[in-house]
Amino acid sequence: MERAKRHDSVFPHHSPIQNLAEVTHSVHIGFMSDSKIFVGLKSTRKKSAASKGEATGPKCHWDGCDKVGTHRAPVGPSAEGLYLLFCLEHVKEYNKGYSFTSAPSDATVARYQKEAVLGSRKTIGSRINQSTEMPLPLTMRSGSAKALNARKSAAQREAQKAELQKRKLKVLEAKAFETLGLDHDATPEEIRSQYKNRLKMHHPDVNQGDRNSEDQLRASIEAYKILKLNGFC
């Protein structure tokens, strides 16, 4: 009995739960002290270009350049909607040689434009087809009823003109063109302009009552009536 009391004084009795808590606490403290070893370590993986702030994207379209194409430049009037991509240095070169007038661009830029139009040089964007609608007067609002009717009337006139050009001219129509000194494919504006010129040319006040001029004046008036009635002007 006395030996048991001495043993308990040296090794105090603890419950299993209390012992488990003490062990867990000791392990946690040990881990915290050991974790200081890893504080100074850094990842050896390389940072991506995006994290470094470098530009990413498709390459510059200039021959031999490996930089990123961050600037787009238009191909030209013959390829509306298509663009080439260049880095800052080469977009300056392209703009320098690009012709903003009817004159051709310099040799290098012209080659790039030609290759882009033919499809042998990579481009971005989508080609825009030229509008086939009839132009409206500047005073007319697009989309209004008046504008739509005007465009419809213009389209009908163009269709009628094309139909007239397809069919063979009647004898009187061909003679009317000949009388006014016009080709058979003359536009309505050309017919009206020529008619006014012949009226001035053969007017009695100008020709002092010349009989021949009066006959030509009447023939011009009759020819114009025939062409107008048949939709040529």
Shape: elongated
Give the strand order of the largest sheet, numbering strands 1, 2, ... along the chain: 1-2-3
Number of strands: 3
Number of DSSP helical runs: 9
Percent strand equals: under 5%
**Helix share of residues?**
40-55%
Could you state the order of secondary-structure elements as H and E? Answer: HHEEHHEHHHHH
* Amino- and carboxy-terminal Cα gap: 138 Å
Based on helices, strands and strand pairing, what is the structural class? mainly alpha
Give unreliable regions as ranges: 35-39
Kindly report the average pLDDT value: 74
Largest sheet: 3 strands, antiparallel
Rg (C-alpha, Å): 45 Å
Reconstruct the topology from this structure.
Layout: H1 2-10, H2 16-34, E1 71-74, E2 82-86, H3 88-97, H4 107-118, E3 124-125, H5 145-166, H6 171-179, H7 188-201, H8 204-207, H9 211-229
Antiparallel strand pairs: 1-2, 2-3
Helix pairs in contact: 6-9, 7-9
What does this structure look like?
The structure is a single chain. This protein has helices spanning 2-10, 16-34, 88-97, 107-118, 145-166, 171-179, 188-201, 204-207, 211-229, and strands at residues 71-74, 82-86, 124-125. With 233 residues, the chain is mostly helical. The model is unreliable at 35-39 (pLDDT under 50). It contains 9 helices and 3 strands; from the N terminus they run ααββααβααααα. The protein is 51% helix and 5% strand. A 3-stranded antiparallel beta sheet has the order 1-2-3.
